[in-house]
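Progress narrative, Year 2. Work on MARVEL domain-containing protein from Marasmius oreades advanced from sequence curation to structure prediction during this period.
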Amino acid sequence: MTVQFANYRLGFYVAVFLLSGTVLGLAAHFAAVFLPGLHHDFTIFALIVSSLTILAFLFTLQWAQPRIEVPVLFVLGVLWLAMGAWTTDVVGNRQCDAIDGATREGNISARQYCYETKVIQAFSWFLFSLFVIAFTILLNLISQAQRLGRYNIWREPIQELGWFGEWPGYYNTHQPQHYQGGIPYGMPMQMAPGQPGQTIIVQPGMNGAPATVQQIPMSTV
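Result:
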């Protein structure tokens, strides 16, 4: 696992958990005071989107591959876009502090309802922005890993991805590590026949170092 990618991904997950949890709490409050009479469609949708986000992230936090996380980020991003647009349609450009405190919205004051809806609106748009950024970064990191030779990275654990400038699959490294036998990951190698039953592997040197020449049995190639 690369440390930078793991830390940034964890930070993204924590932010999404906190923001989604806040929206879920406000939606649950709306459900308690409004359902089933008022704002039922909006309240139920807010409950579904925030709950689905938390459940999906609890699953992908430990078990995820790029081919799973990419569509998850896309779908959740679309849902939060819809949530933000719907909330904007509900609250509009209303100035909450200008609302008469005596005006009621169900069992709560209209001013309190306005403030809480504004919070849902702001958090929904912020979450949508986070998902767009995460989706874009993830696609770029997958493309980088494929350029570095990890052609099956879509099916590998997502922790194998490296951050920008890092090699995938290695712990906090900016250059490829060496496998046993001195063959660096992702570097091209050339093979030539050697003694009977053996072959010679010529591995280009890194950072100007001389090439590495190895003679190994044919059965291991």
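The CA atoms of residues 68 and 172 lie 24 Å apart. Strands lie at 104-105, 108-109, 190-193, 198-203, 212-217.
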